[in-house]
Amino acid sequence: MQELLRKKMEKQGYHFVGKHSAVKICEYAANGLRDKTLCYKNLFYGIKSWKCMQATPAVGCDLSCRFCWRIIPEEFDTKWNELNKTSWDEPRYIAENMIKEQQRIVSGFKSIADTDLKMQRWKEANSPMHVALSLTGEPTFYPYLSELLKEFHKRKMSTFVVSNGTLPEAIERLELMPTQFYISLQAPDSKTYMNVVRPKIGDAWKRFLKSLEFMSTLKTRTALRMTLVKGLNMGNMDGYVKLIGMAKPNYVEVKGFSFVGGAREKERGLSLFDMPNNEEIAEFAHRLAESAGYIETDEHKLSRIVLLSRDKNSKDSRKINFDKI
Question: What is the pTM of this model?
């Protein structure tokens, strides 16, 4: 990795693991250790925020999404180069060292564990029960993703994988499924897609559509994650409904864009006023649910996100059963 890029990411709290993986504690995991507000995954799916590890087995990305809070290397006259590899770190090595880095990060919170609850959560945080492979980059770049998921499942950890859908062949190759598989749904049509995600590959939209088709066949819980930006991708409701009908996910997460981190770079062309508020997200989610035939299920107002469920069974079974991991 370019040294400039590594230093910027380390300053932002990334802990690198091996040649191409990383861990970073999220705001809500830290909040859980401080006995503050927990994240939407806790509300929607029953995941203990302080026991959740935010990570990636591949830090590079083939999109340049305008709303993304993460670093886009080209904005600093550099680029990802760590994925041009002939060798990859072993899945067991990645899993073990991700957990070690998470423990190292969490160790700093012991000093604020001044109540019985905080101390109990700190102890629990040293044995994460969930990993969200969503930190940055595209996790399906890692060719041994199934084996990595197996390593986490052997440790009785639930797994969420969030993909941008540009590698349908990698999704098709998965022999072991995560507990929940996501694809980011950032646009309702090809024109909006090109403007919003700014792909670095020419056939990204075609690949994305193929990934949505694969999603409908996956033998695991599935979800589409939307990040909505006012004036950018909140139009063409019929387009979104068509794509949801193609993927048939168990869940759709309708979330508002936040003007933080990399999204504030002037090259992105966004501002604080492009953030939809809770009322706008709720209204959009309501119309989407009615049009797509989904059920409005829950809302996490602090994150400005509404959960839609495909049917009553999905709604009733949304909480993760860790005994079945």
Answer: 0.93
In the chain, the amino acid numbered 190 is: S
The Cα 270–Cα 189 span in angstroms is 20
Nearest Cα residue to 102 out of 193, 44, 26, 197: 26
Whether residue 325 is contained in a domain is answered as no
* Count of the separate structural domains present in the chain: 1
Residues 114-156 have pLDDT tens digits of 999 999 999 999 999 999 999 998 999 999 999 999 999 999 9
| 3-state SS string for 235-265 | CCHHHHHHHHHHHCCCEEEEEECCCCHHHHC
How confident is the model over 292-325, as pLDDT tens digits? 999 999 999 999 999 999 999 999 999 998 877 7
- The answer to whether the CB of 190 falls within 8 A of the CB of 205 is yes
Name the nearest CA neighbour of 123 among 37, 26, 42, 48. 48
Residue 74 lies in a domain: yes
Whether 287 is in a domain gets the answer yes
For residue 91, being part of any structural domain is answered with yes
- Measured in residues, the chain has a length of 325
Q: Longest Cα pair distance anywhere in the chain, in angstroms?
A: 54
Range of the domain at 281: 3-311
Q: Which structure tokens are listed for 90? A: 């072993």
